[in-house]
């Protein structure tokens, strides 16, 4: 099987399972566990603690040992973490489940894109990464529908089913992921010396690369903004915007309809991003524009006087965000050589986690002092920094030609 097709299958299955999990978990934490706003944010903090602690070590292991091994371990550990959450409504158990699956995710985050970027031609990279994101989005719709159907019976079953899917995805990766281009260099030294040498190489590459230094700031602030809205949007839609009464259907269906709409429109957004990148449009201009639209969407979600206008703001924010992440990953991959690719990608993943950890504490305090609208205003203001940095990058970078970075 072509490795690009294996990548698409993995991305599709992850989209199905993650969307099922996120849709079900949001409602499970609000209705079953009865978590408060600050607890919802702390749940996200648990996930980021795991990523902060393990992101770089697992990325280095992927570079020194095997990207395939890293992917397989990640799938199986994520399956375990998701399985733990619905066992009880105790906040401590839900917190631990996030630590576990967050740990598993660190094995995949740097390794998956690093693996496929080595297995395909460089000119195919943007197309493959964005196509994978499109497939992820479309399969997310199916996952959302499954979460709604299964959740009507018992919301916990949707979480268990998501766990089972990740378990079988781990088995699939054992059978079909191949490393034909990746070579482990045999060096006569201890693993720990190799580990710290690899860490030094990865950080050194970032330090001496102009674009990656800019991306360092951008990724930090992308992490800083997200916790406030990611952990509370379900509560805002269901209770503050009063969609429980407006639609008078099961809450799982309300969230499923919203998330399915985001997934479908996100697919369309990625189609246009991929189309115009091929025509040589500037990748940084696209990312700048999408980030600016994210700010507009957040403000609309917070302050539009009509419930449907606010909901449109959330969908607008979510769809434009869908377009940014494959572009950010593409920029990082293009500017990183193979031998430190997983290390560098994981370093930026850890940077995002640091931002979200700092954001988690900040957003908890803001949620205690202000209402949810104030929380969203701070969220939007944080994104002004990446906008300014992208403007500076555009001033110094040459335009793209034929969809490739100069």
The profile of the biggest β sheet is:
none
Beta-strand content estimate: under 5%
Helix percentage: over 70%
CATH topology: Growth Hormone, Chain: A
Question: How many domain regions?
Answer: 1
Structural class: mainly alpha
Rg over C-alpha atoms, rounded to the nearest angstrom:
20 Å
The number of helical elements comes to 17
Element order, helices and strands? HHHHHHHHHHHHHHHHH
| Shape type | globular
- Specify the CATH class: Mainly Alpha
pLDDT averaged residue by residue: 85
Summarize the structure.
Helix content is 83%, strand content 0%.
What does this structure look like?
By secondary structure, the protein is an all-alpha fold. The chain has a single domain, classed as MFS general substrate transporter like domains (Growth Hormone, Chain: A), CATH 1.20.1250.20. The chain has 17 helices and no strands. α6 (125-153) crosses α14 (307-334).
Question: What's the layout of helices and strands?
Answer:
Elements lengths: L2 H30 L4 H28 L2 H18 L6 H19 L1 H9 L5 H29 L1 H22 L14 H17 L2 H21 L2 H8 L2 H5 L3 H28 L4 H21 L3 H28 L6 H29 L2 H11 L1 H13 L10
């Amino acid at each position: 099987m072509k490795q690009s097709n294996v990548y698409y299958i993995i991305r599709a299955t992850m989209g199905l399972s993650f969307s099922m999990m996120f849709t079900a978990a949001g409602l499970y934490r609000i209705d079953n566990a009865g978590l408060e706003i600050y607890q919802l944010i702390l749940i996200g903090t648990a996930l980021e603690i795991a990523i902060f602690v393990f992101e770089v070590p697992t990325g280095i292991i992927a570079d020194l040992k095997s990207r395939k091994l890293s992917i397989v371990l990640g799938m199986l550990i994520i399956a375990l973490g998701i399985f733990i959450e619905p066992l009880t409504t105790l906040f401590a158990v839900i917190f631990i489940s996030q630590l576990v699956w967050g740990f598993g995710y660190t094995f995949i985050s740097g390794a998956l894109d690093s693996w496929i970027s080595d297995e395909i031609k460089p000119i195919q990279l943007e197309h493959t990464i964005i196509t994978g994101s499109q497939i992820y989005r479309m399969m997310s719709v199916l996952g959302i529908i499954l979460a709604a159907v299964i959740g009507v019976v018992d919301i916990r079953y949707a979480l268990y089913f998501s766990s089972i899917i990740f378990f079988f995805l781990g088995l699939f990766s054992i059978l079909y992921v191949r490393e034909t281009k990746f070579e482990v260099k045999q060096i006569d030294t201890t693993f720990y010396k190799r580990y710290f040498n690899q860490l030094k190489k990865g950080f050194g590459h970032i330090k001496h690369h102009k674009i990656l230094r800019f991306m360092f700031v951008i990724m930090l602030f992308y992490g800083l903004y997200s916790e406030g809205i990611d952990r509370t949007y379900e509560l805002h839609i269901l209770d503050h915007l009063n969609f429980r009464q407006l639609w008078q259907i099961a809450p799982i269906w309300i969230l499923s309809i919203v998330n399915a709409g985001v997934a479908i429109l996100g697919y369309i957004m990625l189609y246009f991003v991929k189309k115009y990148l091929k025509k040589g449009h500037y990748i940084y201009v696209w990312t700048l524009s999408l980030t600016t639209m994210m700010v507009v969407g957040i403000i609309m979600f917070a302050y539009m006087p009509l419930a449907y206008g606010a909901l449109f703001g959330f969908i607008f924010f979510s769809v434009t965000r869908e377009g940014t992440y494959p572009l950010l990953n593409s920029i990082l991959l293009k500017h990183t050589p193979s031998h430190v690719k997983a290390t560098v990608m994981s370093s930026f993943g850890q940077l995002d986690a640091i931002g979200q950890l700092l954001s988690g504490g900040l957003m908890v305090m803001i949620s205690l002092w202000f209402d949810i609208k104030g929380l969203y205003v701070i969220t939007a203001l944080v994104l002004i920094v990446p906008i300014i940095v992208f403007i500076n990058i555009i001033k110094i970078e040459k335009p793209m030609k034929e969809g490739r970075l100069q």
